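Example record used in the benchmark description.
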Amino acid sequence: MDLAQSEYLRHRLTPRPGDPFYLVLSDLLLAIKTLRPSTISRIIDYGCGGSPYRPLFSDCIYHRADLVGGTDLDFEYGPDAKLPSNVSGYDCVLSTQVLEHVKDPKTYLDECYRVLRPGGHLILTTHGLFEDHPCPKDYWRWTAEGLNHLVENAGLEVQATKKLTTGPRGIVFLAERELSRLRFRKSGLYGALISLGVRAVERLGSRRRHQACDKDFSHFRVVDLKEAGHDVYVIVALLASRPLAG
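Model output (structure tokens):
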């Protein structure tokens, strides 16, 4: 494993204050741990990438599926995202930060339904508010209710929906992505004061800023869909299941 891959995995499994995506990745890790069903033994990581969360399922048979050309895959699929027809019978489908990159989300979710055994679970996370990040393409963003609707239309029953990195914690994360460019140069005294404030925040340093967010905005990390006052959120995470009669 090269250094870049090692850091990729470390940022997701042991995120630290000061990491570029700490506020989001630490919340995402918490949500996956919260949503993970206790009774699963066979899982498929659908759109696996580097499979960063595989260690959370070390007690399971774990299969990896991704686009043709990936490394050490159990199953490959093409641009239509359809898995081989003999793939089925899984207790769990894991889909982390994949759906925004899928050209046809309906087909992808139909496949999630198909490969699950009746009673099997889908753990799905994707973006609410986030910058474009092609991998190889970036197509979609969702509201929590919109994602629920899409998943239910695929025949799955949503059991829990969470908003991640919400409110002021989310705003700090989004601002960090553009902070270095936030300078007012033609707006007189008002703009100069704002620019001074921005530089003061930058001097504080990302590690101390993240630690402050953990202390002051701990309730804005993983929040239930129905909790009021969390209308800005970076990620949506949900747990759904294929009906027993399905």
